[in-house]
Write a structure and sequence with these properties.
The complex is a heterodimer of chains A (394) and B (323). Helices cover 66% and strands 2% of the residues of chain A. Chain A is mainly α and 394 residues long. Chain A folds into three domains: 147 residues, no CATH class; 161 residues, no CATH class; 47 residues, no CATH class. A two-stranded antiparallel ribbon of chain A has the order 1-2. In chain A, helix 1 runs parallel beside helix 6 and helix 9 runs antiparallel to helix 10. The relative contact order of chain A is 0.08. Chain B has two domains: 212 residues, P-loop containing nucleotide triphosphate hydrolases (Rossmann fold), CATH 3.40.50; 100 residues, Helicase, Ruva Protein, domain 3 (Orthogonal Bundle). Chain B is 50% helix and 16% strand. Chain B has 15 helices and eleven strands. In chain B, a hairpin with a 2-residue loop joins strand 6 and strand 7. In chain B, helix 2 packs across helix 12, helix 12 packs across helix 13 and helix 13 packs antiparallel against helix 15. The chains are: A mainly alpha (394), B alpha/beta (323). Chains A and B meet through helix 4 and helix 5 of A and helix 9 of B.
């Protein structure tokens, strides 16, 4: 009997079984890992990255081991497969089952089976994988790929805000929608890993300082003062990039620089025209704003509106944090600053309200506002104006 | 043993060859009839008139060199017309004595034509002989000559005034075969052949002893437990109320008896050897499932309303079984 070819066929059958169990185990581990990934992303669990490798690998090893242990084909299974693949009509199985019996017909049967086996060749046995197994494997891979590439949309935003605030002319309920849209834009711009936060923060600070330097250059100060101010900014940047300093020290550094610079600008106002003085006041405001921005960039805070008690504390209007929930609360305090794109300057909210209030009054007087709406508009602005006034007085 | 097996194969092929001289087409029927006769079973043949039922049995009788008798069943046929009866006659000394006059059933090959036309009583007499291979008249038993083979026919067209065989009696037939109307080409061959002569042209190539020897050989054919188990599951699957098989529950009123399992195994062994194999395979069981089970199961109205036949239900059951 051609044992060699039969042994080859048997080896092929075992190999086929290994492949099938491999695919099953792989499908199972990928499927479980996909579910795991999705759960982690949806519920915002903080999982160490190598766990995403360990879980599927361990699951694969265990399932593969178990499948190989429980589903390794027996001798009978092998013979059944050979009978089926080579159309032996269960003759090999019969030979195996009656191997210990000795009757004339069984002897003839064995002889006939041996003759048939002699005519078999291992190359005629083709490895096969069931279609359902292939489908399961493809589905598992697809699910895994999908879950891996789905962005973590629910990650916490720990980065600072750097985008320009927008002017909000509407009521507070609309402010919430504006602020939330700004928040989403900021979220996208602040989608950094913790490892990149520092680099982005430094870049933001550099940008802010460069911006401020430009404003200083365009201001009405004398050249010496400009250079002094710019030097102070360089020194500040250097200090902020110093990793040895604590956050508190850096904040103090910022405050001191702000104070010094504002003082220097203030000193420069002497003997200047009213217009120049106003411009220098604006520069002071720019300096204060820049320092606030630097603090935010450094601390990774979202603009939360009024910094509380700080002179010229500005609401960046970029986050809509806290109060922007459409319940009618004001987002901006009276002395909050709003960026005026047209004039490239910051104006206080109170000033803006006053401006629009005057416009409303003008509209009422010249009849451009509909009469039936005048009362409503008046009440609205009165309430805003009153709040604004009360906030300024605080 | 090799000689006997070789002889078996030769005989089978010779018988086939001779039968093909008289019967055109009907390959499955011929094969099943041969299997039944070698197995020692009987066959119920269904077919419209003129498809060759009588000719088949006649030809078989000639081929096997066995006495053949034909019993035309009619409503007025009495049991004694079939089995025989005691008659009173004078012996050589002038004394009156009873003598058993054997009926037409005392032959090797019987064609029981239109068995469903006879009364149940006459049918029973026939069927008792089929089952027991003997007839008991006035407490005396008369054995049939082996091999004893009955091929009963049923005319599917004329149902008026007939007495359909009860299910219990149907069970005594090993196979139920359906002789279909021949194809155009086959019809052409039949006409050409019968234009020459209407008589059977088959020659004797075997005899009763050969059949008995073949029967003994096939008993030795091995069958593995797996296939045995499969066969039992197949027969059990026809009983929806017992085994919980969904198909049987849905479409069958009742299932096959244990005789079906016996018939399947016996027939499968013969078929395996006829095919040149020395072991029974799943194919043998699946192939013989239809002639073995179709007359032993009864479909319900749901199956009828869905246009399913007995064979369709058997096919569904086989498909649902795991090998």
């Amino acid at each position: 009997m051609n044992f060699k070819e039969l042994r080859k066929i048997i080896r092929k059958i075992y190999f086929n079984n290994i492949i099938q169990q491999f695919i099953r185990s792989l499908s199972l581990s990928l499927f479980v890992e996909s579910i795991f990934l999705l759960i982690v992303k949806i519920f915002r669990f903080e999982i160490i990255i190598w766990l995403h490798v360990l879980v599927p690998v361990v699951l694969f090893i265990i399932s593969f081991g178990l499948l190989m242990f429980f589903f390794t084909p027996t001798k009978k299974d092998i013979y059944r497969t050979i009978d089926k693949e080579f159309d032996l009509k269960e003759s090999l199985l019969t030979k195996e089952e009656f191997i210990n019996q000795d009757t004339p017909i069984l002897n003839i049967q064995r002889k006939e089976v041996d003759e048939r086996l002699n005519r078999l060749y291992a190359k005629d046995y083709r490895l096969s994988i069931s279609i359902s197994l292939i489908v399961i494997a493809v589905l598992s891979i697809s699910l895994f790929t999908t879950s891996a590439v789905v962005p973590n949309r629910y990650e916490k935003n720990n980065d600072s805000v750097s985008s320009e605030p927008s002017i909000d002319e509407s009521s507070s309920s609309e402010s919430s929608s504006v602020s939330s849209s700004e928040e989403s834009s900021n979220d996208s711009s602040n989608d950094n890993s913790s490892g990149e936060e520092n680099n982005n923060s430094n870049q933001d600070i550099s940008d802010i300082l460069d911006d401020l330097k430009d404003k200083i250059d365009n201001s009405d100060l004398d050249e010496e003062t400009k250079e002094n101010l710019k030097d102070q900014l360089d020194k500040l940047e250097e200090n902020l990039q110093n990793g040895d300093k604590t956050e508190e020290e850096k904040n103090e550094e910022i405050d001191k620089t702000e104070e010094d610079m504002n003082q220097e600008v203030e000193d420069n106002k002497d003997g200047q025209s009213e217009e120049t003085k106003d411009n220098l006041d604006d520069l002071k405001q720019d300096i204060s704003n820049a320092m606030d921005q630097i603090k935010d960039a450094m601390n990774g805070q979202e603009g939360e509106g009024n910094q509380g008690g700080e002179e010229g504390g500005e609401n960046q209007g970029t986050s809509g944090s806290g109060t922007g929930d459409g319940n009618g609360e004001n987002i901006y305090a009276a002395d909050d600053l709003i960026y005026d794109y047209e004039n490239d300057r910051y104006v206080s909210y109170g000033e803006l309200i006053e401006f629009y209030y005057n416009k409303v009054v003008e509209g009422m007087n010249d009849g451009s506002l509909p009469e039936d709406l005048q009362d409503l508009i008046a009440q609205y602005f009165a309430s805003l104006y009153n709040e604004t006034s009360s906030d300024s007085n605080d | 043993m090799e000689k006997e097996i070789e002889s078996f194969k030769n005989l089978v092929s010779k018988i086939n060859l001779e039968l093909r001289k008289d019967i055109v087409g009907q390959d499955e029927v011929i094969e099943a009839v041969l299997i039944a006769i070698i197995s020692g079973g009987n066959v119920l043949l269904e077919g419209i008139p003129g498809v060759g039922k009588t000719r088949l049995v006649r030809s078989l009788g000639k081929t096997l060199n066995l006495p053949f008798s034909r019993i035309q069943f009619t409503p007025d046929l009495m049991p004694s017309d079939v089995t025989g009866t005691n008659i009173i006659e004078k012996d050589s000394e002038g004394r009156m004595k009873t003598k058993f006059q054997k009926g037409p059933i005392f032959s090797n090959l019987i064609l029981a034509d239109e068995i469903n036309r006879a009364t149940p009583k006459t049918q029973s007499a026939m069927l008792e002989a089929m089952q027991e291979h003997k007839v008991t008249i006035a407490s005396k038993s008369y054995e049939m000559q082996e091999p004893f083979f009955v091929l009963a026919t049923e005319n599917p067209i004329e149902q008026d005034g007939t007495y359909p065989l009860p299910e219990a009696q149907m069970d005594r037939f090993m196979f139920k075969l359906i002789m279909t109307f021949p194809s155009v080409d086959e019809l052409k061959d039949i006409v050409k052949m019968t234009q020459v002569t209407m008589s059977e042209m088959a020659n004797a190539v075997a005899n009763g002893e050969d059949i008995l020897a073949m029967r003994e050989i096939t008993k030795e054919i091995p069958i593995i437990d797996e296939i045995l188990d499969y066969t039992m599951r197949l027969v059990s699957a026809t009983h929806g109320e017992i085994q919980g098989n969904d198909i049987a529950k849905k479409y069958l009123r009742f299932g096959a008896s244990p005789r079906a399992a016996q018939a399947l195994i016996t027939g499968a062994k013969v078929r395996a050897l006829m095919q040149g194999r020395y072991n029974v395979s799943y194919e043998d069981i699946d192939c013989l499932a239809y002639p073995t089970l179709r007359h032993r199961i009864k479909i319900n109205y749901e199956a009828i309303s869905e246009g399913l036949s007995n064979d369709d239900v058997i096919r569904m059951i086989i498909k649902g079984l795991k090998k």
